[in-house]
Please model this.
Amino acid sequence: VVLMGSAIGIAAGARLGMGQAALYGEFYRFPFMHYVLRPEVAVTGVLVSALAAVAGTLTAVMRAAGLPPAQGMRPDEPPRFRRTVLDRGTLRALLSPPARMVLRNILRRPLKSTLTVIGVALAGAVLVVGGFMWSAVDFMLDVQFSRSLRADLTVTFAEITGHKVLHELSALPGVRQVEPFRMAPVKLRYGHREERLALQGLVADAELRRTLNDRYAPVTLRGGGLLLTDHLAAKLGLAPGDTVSVERLDGRRSIRELSVTGQVGELTGHNAYMNIDALNAWLGDGDAVSGAFLQVDAGALDALYARLKNIPQVVGVMNRRAAMNSFNDTMGENLLMFAFINLCMASTIAVGVVYNSMRTALSERAHELASLRVLGYTQAEAAYVLLGEIVLLTLVAIPAGALIGYGFCALLAHSLASDLFRVPLALAPHTYANAAVAVIGATALSALAMVHHLRRLDLVSALKVPQ
Model:
């Protein structure tokens, strides 16, 4: 079984790897991108599967192999039971006999019950991780394109130009609001650490390009201090109130000591911000601008975008709506594949754990269930005794899976943090709900299969003593 499953898994993994490589090639515009299945990756997958199979069967195999032949041919001894807390006090009166049977079986086999809960919980955790990627990307889009960058068009000029260009942009058809920005290449140095970046100058009360704090609320740029992204501040070891050396890298190279007035909680890049008037005063270029943010009427957006691209002085125009659509199309395809893989993996884990647990319980308790039927219990009551255990364990596993999934998501967000972007630990309530529904659905399907087996149970054969 392990060898057959490993062969299927390696083939499916290689096919998914080729699809992922093609998706990355399209996203990053690589001329070609080949996927190569490394032998050590395939061997690792086979070894993990084999170790899991051996760990699951070794105890049973060793116990059976250690029995003397004569002992192994004898009928099993009936188990020894003792009274538990369920058989004493008011709890006995509150629980029906089938409910006490279910709870007794769980308490008398704590290891089996614990492993079942862990297996189902891990299935739910995998689903939480899959949903987390959707939630995180949606949150990043909301922060980047709704709370921070609110301009319909971002225009970048080929070279620094005067402030009068803003009046020319305001006069274009459909333009409702214009905000300038200034970019200056600088080197930040604090102690032995340094970082090269483009220092961005924004207006004090910006509406079209806002800086956000760690709670993603707008921050006002006033005075002559710097606002650094939390990621950049951590790399340089800076905190609000510290003084950092800023060296200009273009034109008249100069160095100035500036105070860090605060941090911003952006999820992309590692940026530094300053009031545009204070930045221009330091650079000595007057009211110069590098570009502008435009708010445009929806009906005039496409025509204005085409017109601006044909202006020689304009080196770049970014359409916020087009950027969002492109991001959603590419990332949506990627995340859809990721979510589908997660759903298949989690469903396989859940069905495997739940179905095997129920099938084992049916094999072990066939005599008991047949006895209950003979004593007058209905098929529904017998099914309650058989399925009640796994249903109760599944209900315990769902919140445990949510907690484990949250831990996995926190670990994933931490490991993916880079200079390009940071993945926020954003988990929507529907992520947990979808994981719970998927686990409950897998349990329900397994329960239906067990009910079918229970209906076909031969009472006469089940009541016979093995010879």
